[in-house]
Amino acid sequence: MATADAIPEVNRNIVVLEGLAKRFAAADILRGVNLEVTRGEVLVIIGPSGSGKTTLLRCINFLEDYQGGRIFVDGELVGYEEADGKRTRRSDAAIARMRADVGMVFQSFNLFPHMTALDNVMLGLCSVRKLSAAAARCSAASWLERVGLGDKMAAFPAQLSGGQQQRVAIARAVAMEPKVMLFDEATSALDPELVNEVLGVMADLARSGMTMLVVTHEMRFAREVGHRVVFMDQGVIVEQGKPQQIFDRPESDRLQAFLGHFAGNS
Amino acid sequence: MPMILAGLPLILHGLLVTATISLAVLLLGTVLGIFGSLSLLYGANVLRWCVRIYVDVCRSIPHLVLIFAIFYGLPALGLQVPAIVAGILALGLFCGAHMSEIFRGGVESIPHGQMDAAKSIGLTFAQRLRHIIFPQALGRILPAWVNTAVEIVKSSSLVSLVSVVDLTMAIQQIVGRTREALLFYAVAAMLYFAINFTLSITGRRLERKLGHG
Hints:
The structure holds two protein chains of two kinds.
Chain A: H1 2-6, H2 9-12, E1 13-24, E2 27-38, E3 42-46, H3 53-60, E4 68-73, E5 76-77, E6 80-83, E7 86-89, H4 92-100, E8 102-105, H5 117-127, H6 133-146, H7 162-174, E9 180-184, H8 192-207, E10 212-215, H9 219-225, E11 228-233, E12 236-241, H10 243-248, H11 253-260
Parallel strand pairs in A: 3-10, 3-11, 8-9, 9-10
Antiparallel strand pairs in A: 1-2, 1-4, 4-5, 6-7, 11-12
Helix pairs in contact in A: 5-6, 5-7, 6-7, 7-8
Chain B: H1 2-42, H2 45-60, H3 63-76, H4 83-108, H5 112-120, H6 125-155, H7 167-178, H8 181-210
């Protein structure tokens, strides 16, 4: 613990949320969330629907703007510039550059349907990372092989199963070599028999030392792969701790009630 | 037959004028449509309001009134333009308004997740349009674009009312001289049909080709 404290905070925490607040129309979605994620940590976020989990992830790569608090990724304020206490939205190019360092996997895959699996993974490498076509193809191909789709590189998304599509989407995000990966209910849209192939790829990434924020309803994954579990409800973090602590000795009533819904299949 | 031959140079001239007007209007309309739809979709409030007014006004006025307004209106403002230019401007303004809505609809029909995914890999706004939005919008827009092109070819005959010698006017002049209304209007109908049928067929072929993406 003492050595960890000696490391400068900016280096230790790859993602820092300070009092993050987000309001949609008249509803408070996030009401002051504080969170620090260390490099290499797998943080699993659980909670009932509408608790703000997805919005939290979307704010981290600025798919949503936020009104209150601050988000830092690798020490850099996300989305805004601050001067004299006033914040202004950063330029399109600056926001794009930051997003390139934050990978995201969506519930609905969101592959580009007019491109092959290989082209889906290559696009960011060529357009954003400015790799040559040959280098991008090489990297994209190796990532597709790593997620078990070496034989599907020329396939279009419509020709792939949901599980295969989501694995391409993971390859597309990870190939950018992001500092942190965000998973937004990555398996919720999948048929039950396809869930494990995607969770397997995610567990493989976690073992490789990738920093991951995972919103999921897969409690077994949370328990076995997660380093820390955060329980959110109504826009705030209610309870957090190691998986065993959260699942075996939940303290708050709300967490106990939430976990009650999963009794029998977790 | 000799009568058709005698009228041929004028018919060909008219055909050329009709084709020129149609192409110019479609070009102008497509360019206006691209800027108009992008303004409606992503523009700042003021720009969006201006374009919305332009679109709604131009789409609500009969083509002929637009043509007259520009043909007789511009000189009143001290601008002398040839009748054919006035016609192209008027129909181009309408076409641009119509295309703005078509393109906007095409882009809006692309699921939001596409934009999210494109943002999340760090593409800039221009890159997102170029790599993700435009290629997918193209296939959705094409059928409506071809329909509009067909409408524009037909509407181009209205410029004959400001004395441009397009295909319709050419035919009218020949009929005036020869009194062979049935024959020459049949020729005109066939020529319009030939242009538009070719357009539709080409459009359908392109659609099938793009359908894969």
